[in-house]
Amino acid sequence: RNFALATGPTEHQNRATKRAEGHVQALREAGIEPGPSIVIPYFLGMLRSGETLRDFVKANPDVDCLFCTNELIAIGATVQCRRAGLRVPDDIAIVGFGDVEAASIIEPPLTTVAVHGAEMGRIAARIIRERLAGDTASPELIDVGFGIIWRGTA
User: Are 7 and 69 in contact (CB under 8 A)?
Assistant: First the structure.
């Protein structure tokens, strides 16, 4: 497969930056050279972002897999690629990040990376309680993991 990356702006967006870096790292660890990438301005919205990604995919015909660092641009890309006659996932596989509700109801349903938001919330609440109780320990990095939800776009 020939992978491309679509992300929103990364300035002041550590999560988007880390997702993009993780994508590149995982490909390289698998012996795959990362393909082209595109930054989508947030103000474009879901469908305009999708139009931009559709045009990006058409301009890069070797790309057959698009990893999007958020669901909104992945959903927009799925809708607009299909409207343009591209077969998802046959012509272009699309993967999102976040598992928003709409990901499961578009056609085809979006394959996505799901993070454990409830667990993050529980840990954040615990840390806040500890800090309020006087704990002055240094911040710690806590990995709550992720899962891949395989649906129809990949």
Answer: yes
